[in-house]
Predict the 3D structure of the following.
Amino acid sequence: MKIRTFFTICAASLIAVSTFSCGKGDWAVKIDDDVITIDEFYKYYYAQNKIMLNKSKDEIDKLITDPALKDVIKEHPTLNKTNFMDFLVSRKLLMNKAYDDKSLDEKDLETVEELFTLQGVAPTTSSKNSRTRSRSRTPKSTSFTGRTETSSRALP
Amino acid sequence: MNDQLTEYMKQQVFMHKFEQKSSEMVMDLIAEAKVVRDGFQKYMAAQSTPNKDSKKGKIDLDETAVEIDDEKITIGQFLDYYYTQNKILSNMTKEEIDKMAADPAATEHPTLSKQKFMDFLISRKLLYKKAMDDKKIDEDELETVTELFRLQGIPTYYLMQKLKSDITITDQEIEKFYVENKKHFKGVPINEQVTMTIKQQLFMKKFEQKSSEFVMNLIAEAKVNREGFKNHLQALEDAAKKDAKKKDDTAGKDKAAK
């Protein structure tokens, strides 16, 4: 009986926390059993646009509220929040599907994951350091061609 | 020049400078690191020998291809990366990738050329290590970026594996494409390489269509509730309207006072 009371209180507390919690921790989208919170959405949103546009959070916010760019933003795949959320939802669904699919070779999937992790982290490092280096006037060195490929990021 | 154009030009110039600086940074990283690719060079030499068929059988996949500081990549691991990367980007089998890579035109290709792909892999491994060790980089942000790339890469790979067998390209379609785009082939007859290139282009077009359909069906089948997001966007819009009204009212009062 005591155990039942304990679990009832726990369950009630959980419901209360999820119902009355407010702000950016709120859920934005529920995809089957997955949840994307408003916070998570913005984390992805600003990171994606930072990679693509080299803009800070404030610059992105300024850009999307610029009346002159209203039509461009409306159609933009990553700056328009609804479009970007659509993209996130579809990717989450596909990702879950991929991990559940027993017909896919697990080792291949691991290699794909590793390849994309390598490609994702590297531009971030270059970008951060390039900004600093641009300011510090690093002397030019000889060219190293073909190392900045982005071709593999084509998405269907 | 309007704001939009200025913004676009700024972006273009930045990207150009970024590529230059990235190359310099990678050059510096390679110069600083201990990169030994003897195993890989040996493998490449064995591949290019005239009697390569007999040599191919002797390749030890566990042999080290490259040493990057303390990390070792074996020939087998390199080939896994190589074929997987090219499989993500095309519908080609291992044999077809080998055939395409044997074309002299592929020596400059960033992923089909094994030399170029090894350069790319080394640079990415070094940059990855650098990112992980760099205390100035926000760990959370790094994790988000990595997650974003995984979210883009794995679905693409998944769609390719799922849909490639549903897509067929007929000889008639290839011929039609060749005739319609003859000027782009600059007099090159419709040989095996041209056929493969056209097949690839037509495949990608059909793949994009099929992918969209697949995603649409997936969304229709899944339980997706966007109420929270809709409410959030509505709240943002309401706040912006309220803000604009407040500004208008203040401006009106100022005008009246004057």
Summary: The first strand of chain A starts at residue 27 and ends at 31. Residues 40-116 of chain A form one domain. Residues 10-22, 129-156 of chain A have pLDDT under 50 and may be disordered. The two ends of chain A are 56 Å apart (CA to CA).
